[in-house]
Amino acid sequence: MRVQEHAKLSMAAAFAILPWLKKDVWIPLAASLLIDVDHYLWHAVTHRTLSLRAAIKYFGQADPPQRRAARLLHQPLVLVTLFFIAIRTRSRVLLLILAGLLFHVSLDVVHATQMKSLKRSLNERANRTCPECGQACETLQLHTVYVSANPLNRYAARNFVVLCPTCHEQAHQQRN
Predict the structure, then answer these.
(1) What are residue 25's DSSP bridge partners?
(2) What is the pLDDT of residue 176?
(3) What pTM did the predictor assign?
């Protein structure tokens, strides 16, 4: 899911819980937005660069590698540990941070599930053949053609196409 989509949905959730959390609403909001710092930190350590531009380029490539190490704060063990620490210390702040992290991770799970379903159905529809070059390919990749401003239309099949890895990389190079 794109950062902008996470931000929009996190802001909407913060607005919805504002009557209950009042001035503390910023805590889960900040946690929901800042959780992705683990991607940047992983990139900085692995690639030995502090360049935010390089990290954005790496994660914005056509089919970036999905590495568990790059998603440390998203891991169930980290979230469960934080939960037990929050309960043990009776910390409202830690519970609110955990709520924000869980909201973000739940958005990621929904996104991954929807994208997997889209990829499978569009692969079958394309008969495992790249529509751009006509090459038969078992591993067609999902490419976003249009990003809907409305999050409810985000996963409409018309917004995506499946491409072979070569055509997918070319599509991303043309976009940049």
Answers:
(1) none
(2) 60
(3) 0.86
